[in-house]
Amino acid sequence: NFNRHFAEYSGSFLKTSFEDEVIAAKGQPITFYDSVSGKPLFVAPIGRSVDEFLSESEYHGWPSFRDQEVVWENVRVLKDGETVSITGTHLGHNIPSKDRRNRYCINLVSVAGNPAV
What we know:
Layout: H1 18-24, E1 30-33, E2 40-44, H2 50-60, E3 64-65, E4 75-77, E5 82-85, E6 90-94, E7 104-106
Antiparallel strand pairs: 1-2, 3-7, 4-5, 5-6, 6-7
């Protein structure tokens, strides 16, 4: 839960069912849950198409979320850009785009949890 350095290699999510599951949702937003606590962390895509969400994620190597897709009551961004859940799970990093909008490149293993019961 407190791994602060590394979770997965760039592109690892492409070897999973991630893209198929996003496409199967037929444009409906999908909730991504903390793999430790089960709290919702991201809901995507919001404010962009499935193709835009997947294309950006593929280009950057990790599922990439924007500000409007973050569940802020459960996510924090530290001064160095590290993105963590409120329970301490390392999620990834904020790597802003060229237009200076926040882009959270998130390890799929960190958001592959199930909802808390």
